[in-house]
Amino acid sequence: MGGTFDPIHHGHLVAASEVASRFALDEVVFVPTGRPWQKEDKEVSEPEDRYLMTVIATASNPRFTVSRIDIDRPGPTYTIDTLHDLRTERGDDVDFYFITGADALSQILTWRGVEELFDLAHFVGVTRPGHELTEPPIGQVPDGQLTLMEVPALSISSTACRVRVAAGEPIWYLVPDGIVQYIAKRGLYQHDDDRQQFEGHSGAGTLPANRLPDIGKFFDDPYQ
Ligand SMILES: Nc1ncnc2c1ncn2[C@@H]1O[C@H](COP(=O)(O)OP(=O)(O)OP(=O)(O)O)[C@@H](O)[C@H]1O
Ligand SMILES: O=C(O)c1ccc[n+]([C@@H]2O[C@H](COP(=O)([O-])O)[C@@H](O)[C@H]2O)c1
Question: Which stretches make up the Cytidyltransferase-like domain (predicted)?
Answer without folding.
Answer: 1-163
